[in-house]
Amino acid sequence: MTVSLAANVTCGENEQFYECGACDIPCGQDVVACPAICLPGCGCLPGYKRNNNGICIPQDQCPKPTCPTNETFYSCGTCDGTCDRPIVPCPRICKLNGSCNCKEGYVRNAAGNCIAQEDCPQECQAVTKAPEDPECGFNEQFYGCGPCDSTCDQDIACAAVCRPPGGCGCLPGYKRNAIGVCIPADKCPNKNCGKNEIFVPCGPCDGTCKNLNPSCLEICRLEGGCGCKSGYVRNSKNECVSLKQCKQ
């Protein structure tokens, strides 16, 4: 016979008791490695994360990451060029917790700081044409006059101005998605989500009425998808409902 401990445990604000233990995600992260051993205890409600004070708050209220000068936060992370090598290849796997990287048009100098590419030391300015075999990212190629990428949300009108030494851009027929990866234009996601759903750039990992905290793979689905809003889970009909509706 299984005995529930929930009746004897008082959890904190925005917390609930889990028979198999909680695996809370802190603000600033999207995934955590949960222990393999199942232990009962209190954890954040679905759609909540722990802040720096250990309090469970709605994930959309987590403070945005702060980055150093000339850097910005990318939810999927990216790869920084340097004064010696302005163009670098990026791995195909998304860093789910994101990272701070140089702003567009900036590269890292020898001290590791992001500076405007034109401010690099003179000896680093010798690159005036594309390398013979440039290394670009997934579904990208080198454009001698510089790229002009449209996104899934917007078609870009390109200026008739050449910007040497050029750079990497999407292949013809491809567009950049919400996390900056080039995907076929016909694979751009439909962001018209259903009731109680929102669009998730890296793809959703929704809890269900029977499994509130599923284990999510640390791999980003490049096309993204619709997921339940904070505080909602999927029922047996694949609809996003509140926890109260699960018990009805």
From TrEMBL:
InterPro entries for the chain: EGF, Ser_inhib-like_sf, SerProtInhib-TIL_Domain, TIL_dom
GO molecular function list: serine-type endopeptidase inhibitor activity
EGF-like domain segment(s): 82-115, 147-183, 204-241
Pfam families per the UniProt record, alphabetical: TIL (PF01826)
Swiss-Prot/TrEMBL keywords: Disulfide bond, Protease inhibitor, Serine protease inhibitor
Full protein name: EGF-like domain-containing protein
Native species: Steinernema carpocapsae
